[in-house]
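hey can u check if this looks right to u? its 155 residues, i copy pasted from the old doc so theres a chance i mangled smth
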Amino acid sequence: FFPRRAEPGKKLEPLELAAIPPVIFSEVMRDLDLVVSAAHVGGVDPEASHSTVEMRAAIVRELLALLHIENVMVEERHAKIQGRPGEDTVHRGSAVVHKMGRGAVNILAVPSQHRGRVFLPFADEEPRTAEVMSKIIMLAEDFSIKDPAILSQIE
């Protein structure tokens, strides 16, 4: 944040955070969030580069083959899962889940420090990859889901 006016020939100095009116700060942060959200929807994924998404596609294909899971199709940036109650998608960059025709499904990952670690022997240690994989596998085998919060969203 910089002052709106400065003396001619004088360099603009940033404002102290405490000098910014709270309403102005809040509105600017809200606008910034909107810009970032719109960029994400537009295909500029802040969560993963193109190479990361492609690497995850290879991991998904290999893991599905190893586990003999046949109801998942790996597409451009998503994994499409044909589940019991309908089709779901998992974005391979952000791990966001959507129920086709209904919208987002809120499946929150538990950070590894709060549970046992999931090891993918042929994958990197990046936690988002494990999150993407766990959501794909869980939705591919949706008949075994017991969590009522997840079931209410996918059925």
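The mean pLDDT is 77.
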